[in-house]
Amino acid sequence: MALLLPLIVICIVSGVTADANADAPMTRTHVASLPGFDGALPSRLETGYVTVDEVNGGELFYYFIESEGDPGSDPVLLWLTGGDRCSVLSALFFEIGPVKLVIEPYNGGLPRLRYHPYSWIKVANILFVDSPMGAGFSFSRDPNGYDVSEWFDGHPEYLANPFYVGGDSIAGRFVPFITEKISEDIEAAVRPTLNLKMILEHCKGEDYDKPKNLICRQAMARFNELLDEVSKPHILYRKCIYLSPRPNLESIHRKILKEEFRVLKHPPPRPSIQCITYANYLSYFWANNNNTQETLGIKKGSVNEWVRCHNNDLPYTEDIMTSIKYHRNVTLKGYRALVYR
After folding, report:
1. pTM
2. Cα separations (Å) of 239 from 90, 100, 236, 315?
3. Which of 3, 128, 251, 315 is deepest in the core (most CB within 10 A)?
4. What is the CATH number of the domain that holds 172?
């Protein structure tokens, strides 16, 4: 199934159709303002759906945000987020987008947004895509569609702009693969001190996942002990432990009914407000707000509840374990690449 994700994205960026119908429909919503954000947006925001599987009714949801500079000539960046079917709203809110959630104690109302002055939107047009199927607001009417173009066709004014593909976390595995496939289409005219030295000395290849000798197993065990003492996303962040498996929403529910929030069936764990993950917690209440979904043009009934990451509740198979060969192939062709950690 995971192989279909790159194929679907290639459909979006190269104009290749995902099925026999070359005229797959696209729906768009011009978003003039965002719930929780005061004032006008810094640049034009468009959301919409691209149908990529007409047989199963599969539609990918996207956010397209124009550059604050010169949209007509600034690069177009396709951004895919990592995790297991994580919503690209994470990238928009927590990483490179023009708005961020205001970190303040949640009181049952709509979380507020603020302007992010260091967004990549300053210099690029960014196409954020909820992918693969089932991530964020992307959906399939037939469950078979989850076991598994057309954006540029509807936006020809951006075809001449420089084009980049980017992503983070697990997306670092398939972004080089996607880039290589796009290049082929072009050519075809279509904080602890971790003892890494000890690990490198005694563990080779697949030994990192399944150590085959005692010394390697001991080194990996020590490595994991040290790693567990820090925040894995960033060693300088506070290592956070959730305060409760579920937030106390009894009083919040009463306000939810008053302010037309949907009651969350799977509310997120509530971390300390000092934790970097507190913004993740707030995102559930923003994205599941009825006014938010109406503003973004979310199709009614398409998603029962927005969740940041689906983890293991939808089927997928890992089939790209390393992206090294794709990096090599793409860079040997002369394409620029940036790898960051």
Report:
1. 0.72
2. 20, 22, 9, 30
3. 128
4. 3.40.50.1820
